[in-house]
Amino acid sequence: MLVCSLKAGFPELYRLAKNKEALVSDHLQSHNERVSWDFNFTRHAQDWELEAVASFLELLSSSSVKGYGEDRLCWRGSSKEGFQVRTYYKYLLPADGIVVPWKRIWKTKAPLRVAFFVWVAALGRILTTDNLRRRNVIVLDWCCMCKENGESISHLLLHCSAAMEIWSFMFDIFGIQWVMPGWVIDLIACWGNSCHSIRIRKVWDMVPPCVFWCI
């Protein structure tokens, strides 16, 4: 049984999906109580992707789908204790073992709304233009600050030329050399290990949330 989302379990097939926000009903076809699937990929699967397609179909065939009737909620996480938020949260965690370093987000002296913004950024949920376009919002995919590249979260907060000026200024203040990681979550994960001075540790931990919020 798959204990994560289909997006996380089959990332190579998710990239082929033409409509990444489609519902099950958009792909499910039922005729004379016989169920079939139409995935509507952007292209035909390549040879090296056929194994993933076969596993995907095997997973779908293991689920009983009638193709008619009303939807209903059911919980299969813990039959003995019933529904629990903590169990549900574990199922929502990425299957590849990536865990958001929440202590380095919520345990700083940053205001709650700033910490929440950093949390959402680490999860990749900020409404940048690339995320808006995934939700079928018609908007130009360009960075509002540098106007040179598409606006993703990592570009906007880390790699944009305007953002890099702010980061470079902060690094000069602390007198350190820094190689910017690819993602916000990676920056947060390695940030706390980069300062060995207890005296300035609290100030150092405030740098990412302050820079993110200013940007």
What this model shows, in words?
There is one protein chain. This protein is mainly alpha-helical. It folds into two domains: 1-92, no CATH class; 103-214, no CATH class. Helices cover 46% and strands 4% of the residues. The chain is built from 13 helices and two strands. The chain has helices at 6-9, 11-14, 24-27, 50-61, 85-92, 103-106, 112-122, 129-134, 153-159, 161-174, 184-191, 198-205, 207-214; strands spanning 28-31, 34-37. α7 packs across α13 and α9 (153-159) packs across α10 (161-174). The longest helix is centred in the last third of the chain and has 14 residues, at 161-174. The chain is globular. The two termini are 42 Å apart. 13% of the residues are buried. The mean pLDDT is 82.
